[in-house]
Amino acid sequence: MEEMEARRIVDSYADMILRISSGYVKSRSEAQDICQTVFLKYITAGKEFASHQDEKASVGVDAICDRNRFYRCDGSSW
User: Fold this and answer.
1) Which of 5, 30, 31, 45 holds its CA 20 to 30 A away from the CA of 66?
2) What CA–CA distance (Å, rounded) separates 74 from 11?
3) What number is the average pLDDT over the span 28-50?
């Protein structure tokens, strides 16, 4: 994946991923860790999508899965 495409993805979805993950974790830094994990997986996988909506849905699902995985590993609750 080219740098320009990676930047577009980060610019497009960073706020969405942070909102999704912030609902489950204790701090903004933990939400940022989840965001970084989602982007690393997405960028290194080199996925291609038929539409912007498919791309957005995939990134959102990845964020939810990573958020849930983080929450279970942390073992804490609110």
Assistant:
1) 5
2) 28
3) 83
3-state secondary structure of 24: coil
Residue whose structure tokens are 């994990």: 37
All residues at 6 or more sequence positions from 67 whose CB lies less than 8 Å from its CB, including other chains: 20, 21, 23, 24, 25, 34
Residue with tokens 């590993």: 73
The larger pLDDT score, comparing residue 67 to residue 54, is at: 54
- Helix H or strand E segment including 26: none
Distant-in-sequence, close-in-space partners of 16: CB < 8 Å, separation ≥ 6: 56, 59, 60, 63
Look up residue 37 and give its two tokens: 């994990």
32 has a pLDDT exceeding 70:
yes
Residues 6+ apart with CB under 8 A from 25: 31, 34, 67, 70, 71, 74
